[in-house]
Amino acid sequence: MNRFISLFGHSYHSKDLVQLIEQFEINYPEKPFLNSKGEIMTATASNASKDLYLGFKGANYAYPAGFGKPKSIGINEEEEIILMEITLMSNILEGVHGLKIGDSQEDVLRKLNTKPQEKITSEPSSMPGSVKRHNWIFWMEDYKLQISFLDDFKLDFIRVREFEKSEKLKIKLTATLKEQKKNLRPENLKNIEAAGDLSFLNRWSIDTKDEPKKNELIEFMKNYLALISEHTAKKSASKIYAETTKLVKSINKLNQDSSFIESTERADLCAFIEKVVQSTGFRIPEGLDITEEYRMW
């Protein structure tokens, strides 16, 4: 499995990947999913008899948009696909960290020596063969790892996926939270006050029925500004990040029923949050939307 993982970002037609594809008799995707422009978005190459599946993104748009520049690309770029995921449902390959299909949850925790970032239970769909699954998501050093258990809590499949650009930026951000402390200065409190100008809300065209939600949003934002000032004075970057996440989730709930936040409002709110966070001295990596991970508006 590690040999495939080492080829994430490479073309289906790259020399090393072709060797593995031939070795495991993997078939080229018959029906890749295309966008409205006819560009390949996703494709799956597989050997179903060996329960081995490779996930690809199109080299023209989908892979660069989500993952960045491919590490290798073939001659026919418009038909090219780039490896970014592998799913294993048998022990035909050695799993990462010695994982094996059939391992218990205790085996998984012992072998990985870390706890999952997320635990998600998926209910069976109407599709034939669909079953209830208990999924554990791990953010490893170089990739995202999904472990799936059935109701007997035995490992049923292993999925390894390359980190997307936004995920890499978030990892970079969280890794530097302690270092951010030196960037936060009490004299930045005046900058926060300036960045916290809420007059942009007056430009919004909100239905009368949504005015109460708008007023509630204003209270959320005022409270957020007060807490950001407090955490800046105490030079706590982790709490600034936590309060920002909390605000985004609060806006999610507020917008859940009426969806009064549309494209203009979304752009304004994202710009407001980014400006406030940066006014503290907190440095956001270029290209990272600090609201994106939890934002549902």
Protein topology:
Layout: H1 2-5, H2 15-23, E1 33-34, E2 40-47, E3 52-58, H3 62-67, E4 81-88, H4 105-112, E5 118-122, E6 133-139, E7 143-149, E8 155-162, H5 165-175, H6 189-195, H7 211-233, H8 237-255, H9 263-279
Antiparallel strand pairs: 1-2, 2-3, 3-4, 4-8, 5-6, 6-7, 7-8
Detailed description of the structure:
With 297 residues, the protein is an alpha+beta fold. The protein has three domains: 86 residues, no CATH class; 69 residues, Beta-lactamase Inhibitory Protein, Chain:B, domain 1; 114 residues, no CATH class. The protein has nine helices and eight strands. Helix 6 packs antiparallel against helix 9. The model has no long low-confidence stretch (mean pLDDT 93).
| Overall morphology | elongated
Low-confidence stretches: none
| Class per helix and strand makeup | alpha+beta
Strand content: 15-25%
Task: Let me know the number of strands.
Answer: 8
Helix content: 25-40%
Q: What does the largest sheet look like? A: 8 strands, antiparallel
Mean pLDDT: 93
Q: Count of helices?
A: 9
Give the strand order, joined by hyphens, for the main sheet: 1-2-3-4-8-7-6-5
N-end to C-end Cα span: 37 Å
| Count of distinct structural domains | 3
